[in-house]
Amino acid sequence: MLVLVALTSAVSMMVPTSFLKGLVIGSFFVGGGAALWSLTVQVTGTAPVMMGDTAEMWTAMELRRLQSRGWRVVNHFLLARDDLDHVLVGPGGAYVVETKWSASPWQSEFGRSRVRAAVAQANANARSLGLWHPMKSRGVPVRPVVVLWGGGPNRQESIARDQGTTIVTGNALRTWVDRLDGEALSADQVADVWQALDAQVALRDPSDRAENPVPTSVAALLSRCSIAISCAVLGFFLVGRLLAATDSVWLSVGLGAATLVPAVVGTRVRRLRVAAWGWLIGIGLPVLALALAQLLSQL
């Protein structure tokens, strides 16, 4: 970014008009930030993770089409430490659906090894869900499914079976969903199983969010900084107004310090914490400076 700043500064000084200078500087802010973001995504390995999350959203969108036919879907279902991407419950029984993404062809040696690992994972997850007491006690059959997204530009629609696991390419998922049917469970049984799944989600999701908190976004950080700075400036301005109105340093210090008590309490409240800290800084620093200056003047 420093190199880009230097180049942009040099070029902007050489162009003849203000319009072109603005164009160069604007291009730097847009292109430089985008290039840094792209480089960060590639170098840190974030791109495959992002595409994996996107592929799970694609699968969830297709599975939701079954809701009109009496099926229920839950995403990111937690039984143990690792989650199940999707759990599908309906008239045809229960399915554990694992979603995978690959930029390289699934037919390559690397792709086939990933498919084998995905099949083993889906089988293990189906076994775990089938042994879960609400499923086992109700005799609900659980079948594993693997959905493969990506795989290069020449991917073909495919629905196959391997070791009892259904393997569906992403572009064939809608076809598989449309064919899905059965009478293994009644509507009451589906509702009963769904109630158990819903209770598990309500139990595990809060603890999962506490163990794996979502990082604070840049927008949230900017918003918090803006609130803190605004409160600090307002507090600083208030001390100045108190000093001008009372014409007494110690009275201004006392009145300003009195406002620090509710601010300290506010730091304990989550929604008020940022504003309270800004107020403490904006009031506390000038109050402390005035008190020290008055003490030194009296010595």
Automatic annotation (TrEMBL):
Keyword field contains Ligase: no
Keyword Translocase belongs to the record: no
Provenance organism: Nocardioides vastitatis
Keywords, comma-separated and alphabetical: Membrane, Transmembrane, Transmembrane helix
Pfam families per UniProt: NERD
Protein name, per record: Nuclease-related domain-containing protein
InterPro entries: NERD
Spans traversing the lipid bilayer: 22-41, 221-243, 249-267, 274-296
Domain NERD: 52-148
